[in-house]
Amino acid sequence: MCLFCINIMHHLASHSLTSKVSHNFFFPEVARRKVYQPTQLHGTRANIKKMTDFLKQETRLLKEEMATTQAKINEMAVV
Hints:
mainly alpha
């Protein structure tokens, strides 16, 4: 065997025993690309619909929470 092949085999053997990273000598891990998020939401119909749906749902949940809180306050006032 050539000296280069022995060095590669030694590197692979020692590296696999000491490293917990899941990559090997020939195919190292590559960093993931950043997923860029838009900095501005455009006022398209779809985006406006999403925002209004979210606000409607949030308003409904807050009204329900206020009703239950008001009911608890009324119970405490009666007792």
